[in-house]
Write a structure and sequence with these properties.
39 strands, 2 domains, Jelly Rolls, single chain, elongated, 7-stranded antiparallel β-sheet
Length: 503
């Protein structure tokens, strides 16, 4: 049985249990719009975090609509995301499933939606005023299954992709739906005598940072997620209004380590998040209590390397993984740790020296001087050893243009470029078996030397030797999302942080 069919079976067998709850997942309610002949339904599976919908309805088009709607009331700007699958061959090629922002529950209400059709058509549909004829924009994509619909004032931006590919985007402007709207998931069979089914996974309702926020002064909440790198399925396991960043997965698979950020008592602390209890606990790092998001576990899991700025600019320290007295390793600052060598003898970090940021290594016991591994003009950052110790992967703007992934020998020789596209690629993390590389990609509009908070980014996967990168997560995040090595020990999952306001 496939994962989708298993989830669908579980939902069909127990719809009444979920329907009786006052909320349905992250939404307020569900119901039919336009009184279709055959009633629809909706259910939420808290284990899989999927929504299953059934619906009839003649259409979502022209001057009135009939469909089933899972919704919540929202104001202001926001982003909706989902991955959607229509179940079975279906009856009508134009059955529709997707995301909607609607002025009200009337069948002729103004709205904007981003939907897929049974025949693969993908469209942004909208009704400008009550009772008006529906209009449409068709992005240049067919067979999409990942959808994102965003409101920025009276502008609505629809992004769609086949899972693995970047988004294709279209938008409409000057669509006035009012400040308070109904927001959620929609399904329509396009035939009054037929019930269709769909499963919505990776559903996210995101409130982005407000316009005018000041980076490193203003922060929004954080969401800890686990990602299956092959299927792209995501699971939320922790949320907090106080921001946190950069989860490391412990080698025994029992916990994640992340740092608190922002302002207040959370800032600079390291936490061990127990995956069994789903509870965080503070790791005692002594006087080094202003840690940033450059913390790394040794390959054997016994030691923790941290980048702490309690004494001014960031310096590298080591401490037992369970906590203890920190030992300073790098005499020069700023130094930002990124990796231990597999044998535990060396620490690999980015250092700012004489106005240039390059990659350095130093003995993990603090003996001896640091060794400079790169000296090309431009930022070199995010270095990480492969599990066999044969290469160091890093990101660099050498040569100008966008930030790209490179690799070199452990002594800094034989540098070669691995990625080459129009995105800004940061923080390569190598899978435990050494075969795959995960990294975060910022849009080309971002300064190549920056990796800011609160952007629409991709997590991507590719073979370590090169090839076509595949998008494995479509994320609102950036700084702190995946700064550190975060593969699960079995190489099947990644831990990362996304962001939203008003948790």
């Amino acid at each position: 049985m496939t994962r989708t069919l298993a989830a669908l079976t579980a939902l069909i067998l127990a719809p009444a249990i979920y329907a009786q709850t006052p909320r349905i997942g992250d939404f307020d309610a569900h119901g039919d719009i336009g009184a279709p002949k055959l009633a629809g339904s909706a259910a939420y599976n808290p284990a899989s975090q999927d929504y299953m919908m059934t619906a009839g309805g003649t259409n979502m088009w022209a001057q009135r609509d009939e469909f089933h709607f899972v919704w919540k009331r929202m104001t202001g700007d926001f982003i909706l995301q989902t991955r959607v699958e229509l179940i079975g061959k279906g009856v009508e090629p134009h059955r529709k499933a997707g995301l909607m922002i609607r002025a009200g529950q009337d069948p002729d209400a103004p709205y904007a939606d981003g939907v897929i059709h049974g025949d693969g058509l993908t469209s942004l549909q909208f009704r400008r005023t009550k009772g008006a004829i529906t209009e449409e924009r068709r992005p240049d994509i067919k067979g999409a299954d990942v959808l994102q619909l965003e409101r920025r004032g009276n502008t609505f931006i629809f992004s769609a992709a086949k899972f693995g590919d970047p988004f294709v985007t279209s938008e409409i402007q000057d669509l006035a739906l009012g400040d308070e709207v109904l927001v959620g998931l929609v399904l329509c069979s396009h035939n009054p005598d037929v019930i269709e089914r769909a499963v919505f996974s990776n559903v996210r309702v995101i409130r982005p940072a407000k316009d005018g926020f000041v980076p490193y002064r203003d922060y929004i909440g954080s969401v800890l997620e686990l990602l299956d790198v092959q299927s792209g399925r995501r699971q939320v396991i922790h949320r907090a209004e106080l921001p946190f960043e950069a989860p490391n997965w412990t080698p025994d698979g029992s916990a994640l380590i992340f740092n608190g950020s922002g302002r207040g008592e959370n800032r600079g602390k390291l936490y061990r998040f127990d995956l069994a209890t789903r509870q965080p606990g503070v790791i005692d790092t002594g006087t080094s209590n202003r840690n940033n998001n450059d913390h790394v576990l040794s390959f054997d899991g016994t030691m923790l390397g941290i980048s702490d700025q309690s004494a001014g600019q960031s310096a590298v320290y080591t401490v037992p993984a369970g906590g203890g007295s920190p030992k300073r390793i790098t005499p020069l600052t700023p130094s930002y740790l990124h990796s231990w060598s597999p044998d535990g003898k060396w620490l690999l970090y980015t250092g700012g020296r004489n106005g240039e940021f390059d990659i350095y290594t130093i003995a993990s016991d603090g003996s001896g001087a640091e060794k400079n591994l790169t000296n090309s003009k431009g930022l070199d950052d995010g270095p990480e050893y492969t599990p066999d110790g044969k290469y160091i992967y890093f990101n660099s703007v050498r040569g100008g243009g966008t930030m790209q992934i490179w690799r070199m020998k452990p002594d800094g020789t034989q540098p070669e470029q691995i990625t080459n596209d129009d995105l800004n690629n940061w923080f390569p993390h190598i899978s435990p078996d050494g075969q795959w590389m995960a990294f975060i990609s910022f849009p080309k509009e971002v300064d190549p030397t920056d990796h800011p908070y609160y952007k629409r980014v991709y997590l991507r996967l590719m073979p370590v030797g090169g090839g076509a990168p595949k998008v494995i997560a479509y994320v609102y995040g950036g700084q702190g999302t995946i700064n550190v090595p975060s593969w699960s020990p079995d190489g099947k999952m990644l831990a990362f942080v996304s962001n939203t306001e008003g948790l």
